[in-house]
Specification:
6-stranded mixed beta sheet; 6-stranded antiparallel beta sheet; disordered N terminus; alpha/beta; 16 strands; single chain; 17 helices
Length: 555
Amino acid sequence: MSGTAPGTRQPAFRAPSGDGGALIAPSPGEWDRVLAENRTIREQWRYDVQGRPLDELARQARRDLLWAAVAYTRRYRNAPSPADDAAPELFLAGHQPELFHPGVWLKNFVLGALAQQRGAVAVNLLIDNDTVKGTSLKVPTGVPETPRLTPVPFDAAGEPVPYEERRVVNGALFRSFGRRAAGAVRSLVPDPMVERLWPLACQRAREEGNLGLALAQARHTFEGRWGLKTLEVPQSRVCAGTSFRWFAVHLLAQLPRFHKEYNAAVAHYRRRHGVRSAAHPFPDLAGKDGWLEAPFWIWTTTHPRRRPLFAAFRRGRVIVSDGESLEIELPVTAEGDGAAAVERLCALESSGVKVRSRALTTTLWARLALSDLFVHGIGGAKYDEVTDRLFERFLGLPAPRLMVVSGTLLLPVRAPAASVDEQRELKQRLWQLRHHPERFLEENLHDGQGEHNEPWRLIAEKRRWIETPQTRENARRRCRAIREINVALQPYISGRRARTHERLGEVNRALEAARLLRWREFGFCLHPEDSLRRFLDRVLGKAAATCSNELTVVR
């Protein structure tokens, strides 16, 4: 788990392989202890954020997050008002506003159940600063014996812009998606949830116009109908908050040191895990001609393609740039107060220049200032090992522990029966038929013709060659003779070989069909609603059975 002692290795988290399986780490019985440890860790933190104490900045950040999440959530569903003087525990998770698979969706329900158990507030961050990677959903079609994977578009392709800037391009295509997706999958899943989800998505698209918000708000509305009392807020709202901008100014003012520790942490991760790719877990922050790459994206509303933000230091001031046309001075020094630079970032946003967090900065800020516990999926937890090291090496603080949640729910389709063992056996039999055909003939060798039986003669000749010791002089001739005899025997086993080939083809097709149908990444909306609710109810019910306090399950 992330947040372990320095120098220890994280467990190798893996997605559950069995249908209906779930990973929740730490286990529910440990939740109270983990939260108590995080509270103790936070009470010991002492850190100056460009002239402001971390604890003071975190209190403001939490208040701002809570009110922003309430205001945003109320745009499409009910959300209670927090008490003015309340300082509740905050549990956070985050994901892109996509039609993700049920294992990702499980994270939201565990987050909500834990918050209800503790009397805390659960907030899900919509990571809308990520670029939209696609506008179609992979849908299985056909019949169980010969399924196909068909991309069904929910919008037209567009420019590669962040979710924050992505409008619905083709309204007619978007509105018809629910009907088309349900029709495509219906031969396998008669009652997919998408038929009831999509009218909500269409309603939210009319209200918001934004693609990601339409998808996320429809899903969150469904969660509310199932009793989930979580809040949501786009990460862009967090980045536009004063407290986050103060932290961003701090990272920019301290960028030479952060840049060094970031790249060292990434290199440490690669060494520990034997990673050779320069792209994993993240690329290094670049540096060239006096400019250092910072852990932020920058773009403008008129040119909403995100670019890495770079910074240079001139006359004791920080100059930020998109590496192309923008170059902006921030009035801050490494030791100076951040107030004027924060005001400058606010003014930039008003003029259409947006500075947004990258993945690691998002979780660093969420774990440092916003949450008492952050809930990750497997991928995020794995890469947050780098974040842990930045807590230790850049901030000089122990990292709080986090939770890892994932699950596997397969579509309720009976896949064709076949086994890898049979496939392996059939392939071995074909090899034997090619290289040792005599083994399949000897039991039926004699047909009354004795030595005049041609297969018998070929087998006897092969045996003589095999029994002849191999020498340098006869090696080539011996090998060629055995090979020619194997070829000459093939007509006598052609029926056996054809039947084996035919069966291997059947097994291969069945295994391929099963592989496709057992893909865990199908969007949650392709599953039947009842199947999803049983899965969530079962996982949370098991968690409740091992939890020290009452845990509310989905009903």
